[in-house]
Amino acid sequence: MDNIFYSASEILFKDANVLINIRDWFFSQAGNILLALITFWVGRYAIKWVKNFAVRIMTKASYDSAAMSFITQIINYALLVGLILICLNVLGVPTTSFIAAFGAFGLGIGLALQNNLSNLASGLLILIFKPFRAGHIIQVRDTIGSVKSIQFMYTIITTRDQRNVYIPNSILTSEAVTNIAYTTERLIPFVFDIGYNNDHHEAIKILKKIFANDKRVLNPKTMEIGISEFGDNSVRIAAYARVKSRDFVDVKYSIMSDVKDAFDKYGIDIPYPQRVVHIQNVDNSTGEIKGIKKKATETNVTIDDSPKS
Questions:
Q1: Is residue 119 part of a domain?
Q2: Which residues contact 141 (CB under 8 A, 6 or more apart)?
Q3: 232 with 285, same domain?
Q4: Which domain does 198 fall in, by range?
Q5: What is the CATH number of the domain that holds 207?
Q6: What span, in angstroms and rounded, lies between the C-alpha atoms of 188 and 300?
Q7: Given this model, what pLDDT does residue 304 score?
Q8: pLDDT tens track for 221-276
């Protein structure tokens, strides 16, 4: 350590011209140095005023605290860099080279962190325009859950099975996001399968009665309900129940249970998938082709051995 101080002292004081040059520069630039210090001092107060003004505007606009903090930090550092360049210019230091160096440095960083900067910008857009907030239930692709927190790179969504899913913010601003929290009412799309041998009028009547008995269903009289499709193994009946958003899951589970009980009570079949297989055999003595029709389901097998003419 002593050697370091000795070397520094030798460099500074061995050549008196160094001290003389520093002294001459200081006295020749005394006015500019004082002006630069005053500029920096006033600029700091100006930056503080701009930050407080931005905070007041964002508070009136009901911005999130995270967005306000992030924006004020950007304002602070951007204005601080500008203030330093102004002070250097006052001292007579050419700032063109500094600006070029900052530009090249920023370009290199931007190319290296392109995806991260995209997530950062997307996070800022989410915080500013607020398509969703913490606590809202949203759906992104196949992920449905409650927004736990909005960070600058990722948004954390907690699913029903208590998994934390980190979704890059760039995905949330470039793809469709369903926000359930902004709607007070929702439609539950039901699809019920009944057998072709059942009376669909009777089945629809039973379904309407079930929906009418549940007071949480808001549209029992005007509900859209009817046959939606003739499937391979069943007649499909669709119904759309309107409920409060907070009752969505409870009503769905309750209605499905009530429908199963009612269909069992009134003999309405919920059919299994079925498959029909045709097997052809040849009688070696006569060369006649005989057919065997085999109808198979998950619960039973029916075989028709009658030969085809």
A1: no
A2: 175
A3: no
A4: 185-266
A5: 3.30.70.100
A6: 34
A7: 47
A8: 999 999 999 988 899 999 999 999 889 989 999 999 999 999 999 999 988 876 66
Spatial neighbors of 233 by CB under 8 A, at least 6 apart, are: 193, 271, 272, 273, 274
pLDDT, one tens digit per residue, over 156-186 is: 899 988 999 999 999 999 898 988 887 889 9
Q: State which amino acid sits at residue 111.
A: L
Fill in the amino acid letter for 236.
Answer: R
71 contact partners, CB below 8 Å, separation of at least 6: 54, 58, 63, 124
- Which pLDDT value is given to residue 77? 81
Q: What is the per-residue pLDDT across 30-58, written as a single tens digit (0 to 9) for each?
A: 677 788 888 888 888 898 999 888 888 88
Q: How many domains does the chain have?
A: 4
46's CB contacts (< 8 A; 6+ apart) are 79
DSSP assignment of 247-290 equals GHHHHHHHHHHHHHHHHHHHT---PPPEEEEEEEEE-TTT--EE
pLDDT, mean of residues 275-283? 66
Residue located via tokens 């309407």: 208
List the CATH number of the domain containing 24: 1.10.287.1260
For residue 263, which of 184, 185, 189, 210 has the smallest C-alpha distance? 210
Tokens representing 29 are 């630039």
Question: Strands of 274-282's sheet, edge to edge?
Answer: 274-282, 289-297, 301-304
Same domain, 174 and 189: no
Q: Distance (Å, rounded) from C-alpha 296 to C-alpha 287?
A: 28
- Supply the DSSP string of 123-138, one letter for each residue: HHHHHHH-SS-TT-EE
Range from 18-27, 48-57, 70-79 carrying the lowest mean pLDDT:
18-27
**Cα–Cα dist 133/109, whole Å:** 30
Query: Beta-carbon neighbour count of residue 259 at 10 Å?
Result: 21
To the question of pTM greater than 0.70 for the whole model, the response is no
**Using CA atoms, how far apart are residues 248 and 185, in angstroms rounded to an integer?**
9
